[in-house]
Amino acid sequence: MTRKLLLKNAAELVTCRGTGPKTGAAMADIGIVTDGALWVEDGIIRRVGTTAEVLAGLDASDAEVVDAAGCCVLPGFVDPHTHFLFAGHREEEFSWRLRGDTYMQIMERGGGIVNTVRATRQASPEELTDIGWQRLSSMLSFGVTTVEGKSGYGLDAATECKQLAVMAQLNREHVVEVAPTFMGAHAVPPEYKGRTDEYVEYLLHEVLPRVAADGSAEFCDVFCEKGVFTVDQSRRLLREAQQLGLKAKVHADEIVSFGGAELAAEVGAVSAEHLLHASDEGIRRMAEAGVIAVLLPATAFCLREPYARARTMIDAGVPVALATDFNPGSCFSESIPLVIALAALYMQMTPAEIVTALTINAAAAIDRADRIGSLEVGKQADFIVLSHPSHLYLPYHAGVNCVETVVKHGRVVHDKNLI
Ligand code: NIG
Ligand code: FE
What is the pTM of this model? Predict the structure, then answer.
């Protein structure tokens, strides 16, 4: 029997129509339908329009009904950059940063990512699954229906594969979809300290082929940063990953201006991420190559660094997406409301651009814009209902979660009033 769902009476239905990624003025065109409705069959949107249009000639007698009177409805948020699967925490490092230590100083004296690597190597797959499950559930409550997750807390073949296998399991069992990224080049593990070139060889010859063979990652990301992996090392890794069928992503220009944006353009990466210190030339080349900028304002906030130049990027024609960067070090926060508030108040992004950046452009940043990220006929029915009548409330109700109901694949999977 067909599973049917009717969403009706939405004060504002924000469709975000378009296959994405959107650039320039198109980022502000979010396709609002007043008094909007959706008709969904077996999880796929079959009708979109005003409530009157959608109901015309429709037999909705055996459908589940979501009445969104007085509420704004949007595509489910996509969080296209996270490191959500890790064991242990680094609250002490955060307190040191409050006292003035920098992220890199802590990393250089043996803390940082390798601290989390130690804990993640020790955690069993079952423990990691439980941790991941809880985190995905928290993200879901913020309206996130699809999330990208990076490995990179193993830094050896066994643990990298363990992280990716747990993400695959979570993807199968949790309602939130997980897009897996291999990030073996996240840091140099202690056993390779001072021998970064040798670690890169190990990744190239022993880890990447194994990850590619078991098909557990869709993307490959590299922390291309001064004191971590050079542009040349990053290029080799990304090129090899592409040869093996993975799509490239780059942690680019996060701490210093390092040529990461330029590298992303050169290799044809799907996205370059962070970009706090991206150069003008890097931005120009990203626009030319169609590389999506995944910007992470909550990380800049937590590191007390200047925000990425979103306005410059949008005006230069770079498609911009937003993400949380949820991780135990630079940004221990999965808060979408925080990202929205910072993007509006400190990055000169308009509310409409922010919506695009968290939906269709975020979906494009994980190569899923053909299936999710907008509310259009033929797309998956992933949507959220806000407690307010317009998307303008998202930054206005600063830092507060306005998501009432979440629908994934045509099923109500979260309802604030029922928990
Ligand atoms: O995106 N920069 C590298 N990776 C993360 C931080 C990971 C960590 O500190 O555990 C980031 O900021
Ligand atoms: Fe990151």
Answer: 0.98
